[in-house]
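## retry 2 of 3
previous attempt timed out at serialization; input unchanged, resubmitting
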Amino acid sequence: MEYSKTRVIVTVGLLSAIAFVLMYLEFQVPLFPSFLKFDFSDIPPLLASFALGPIYGIFVEIVKNVIHLPVSQTGGIGEIANFIVGSIFVYTVGTIYKKNKSKKVALIAMLVGTIAMAFAGSILNYYVFLPLYQKIMGWPLSAIIGMGKTANSHIVDLKTLISYGIFPFNILKGLVLSLITFLIYKKLSPMLHM
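## retry succeeded, writing output
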């Protein structure tokens, strides 16, 4: 029993450290607002969710974001958003997958998780995160929309920022992360289950 707890703690710690490093390998995707950065830091939480269960995916999400807080350029809002939206993604995927661990279910789980992440990210940005950026960081909504309009001329207000920026960005991100995770999970599975 102790070995199992130790193994889980070590696995979560290692995946959290890898996720933290992957947060720094971010880049901007054309046609999306410049404040939406693509990174691969949700892959380790996805791996934890598949190998250990959805709660452990959330643990990896929280640890990577807590470690990132001291270097935050968003007053912690970006880390909170990353944690909540990422947790919705990995928890959804892990919960569906643990009921029937097969390749087909894994693909369905990642598709459902991607859709859940995109909808949750859109709603939370509309009602919570973007208003927090305005209030805490002092960023006027017009400036946030302007960053979106620079990347995509269809973005003219908050609703189009969500519709043409945040929602499709999260769909793209979820699909890419799911594909990579699907391709590497079986190869890494023996190490994660040691």
